[in-house]
Write a structure and sequence with these properties.
Helices cover 33% and strands 25% of the residues. It is an alpha/beta fold.
Amino acid sequence: MLKINHLELKLGEQTWQHHLQVEAGELVVIMGGSGSGKSTLLNAIAGFLPVASGSILVKGQAIQDLPPEERPVSYLFQQQNFFEHLSIETNLKLGFAKGKPSQAEWQQVLKACDLLEVTPLLKRLPSKLSGGQQQRLALIRSVLRPMPVVLLDEPFSALDDDLRQVAGKWLQGEIKNSGRVALLVTHRQADADALADQLLILEGS
């Protein structure tokens, strides 16, 4: 599903090399200290950082030269990137083609909203929500977009332990059931223990 072959990334004076293969339905947890290149790897896969050498393949197609908007990738940044003037409901719908999810896709969203306890927030503006509420909604938007690769940068950082477990179990089930892949950056070993099909530990500079 996802193959990263002899990938070399450069940012300033730092250089990283990666080689990784992820099968359909797998979740890779990425850990490492500050400066180890966790977010850098996600940015390269998503197309926000040019690749020095090597390749990134999704379902056998090389994507490393495609612009970000053409890559089959859904990316949850540490900043949730909601449109502040639009309701949460509209923001969630914008994750789908032409902003119009199918009935089945929207039912999936609503089911996830119930599970993660954010259904009453759908008509609100993002500025009216707490950080944890925004994070749960951004997680739903990113995971349920119909993209084969899901990139998640610290997606549970604003959640308490109980919600973290619920969100993690939901994420794991969605990835496995849909046959997609996910790469998740975290600083908590508990996330790796609970979720990782593969654990990638990056060394600091």
